[in-house]
Amino acid sequence: MSKLDLLRRASDLRSQRVPFVLATVIRAEKPTSAKPGDSAVILADGTIEGFVGGSCAESSVRVESLKALDRQLPTTLLISPGTEDSYVARPGEVSVSNPCLSGGTLEIFLEPTIPLPQLLVFGRAPIANAVADLATFVGFDASAVTDIGAISDSADAVVLASHGVDEEDALRAALKAGVRYIALVASEKRASAVLDSLGIDESGRSRIHSPAGLNIGAKTPHEVALSILAEAISTRPKETESNAEQEAPKGVDLSIAVDPVCGMDVAVSPGSLQLELGDELYYFCGSGCRIAFSANPDSYLKSDR
User: Nearest Cα to 226, choosing from 217, 239, 235?
Assistant: First the structure.
């Protein structure tokens, strides 16, 4: 895969709202098979497309890329030879020792790309258009939609400004999908009538913000849109010590196994080298460890028995 092909692949993944990590080699000390500028895309299931080193280095990139996706933070990965870490990682860095390396060192930048929160706007009123216009400036992936079927659990926010057209069905769909922020643009009197017609309990009613937006004295469509977006942002869960880590993108599996031969962490993913023995599935950083294990598994498992 050429660098241009890889960049096109990354662009396609962004347009499809698929989370991924772009890994780029920024330093390589010989002997290494990877060179500065080599890149790869790592998907949430551990699939690696591109090249950032041999199988052992690739295994470390897979593990740390999934961690970067989970944390939604970029990481600089330093892979060095040997069995012990003598390097003290700085903030934003991860250092791993790779006994499989032939003596070289790799420094790889891992950049996670997470889809922006999706905001769906129903209606063609000036306020609806204004919400769609402004949403992109405050970090939403905004779409104007007319099909209620577009509402799914992938949406972070739904704003209805359709002046009575399909409002009840759209509100029910948003509630069923568990959309975090639901706003109905309507007067207080009409909003009360619409909510009464839904036949939902108080818990369901409390999830629908109407009249929509914070009370900032808005008058123009764009001012109203600003108040709605401000409310959508203000109602996000507040960070506490118990939820300091952001929710990982859907599909990210951080299950980690330990290579029974060399002791390296290996991602439990379809792309990792595996070997089934009896009822157990073992994972390996590279083919050398898998060959050694398959030749004499008892020598590596005896400590566990």
Answer: 217
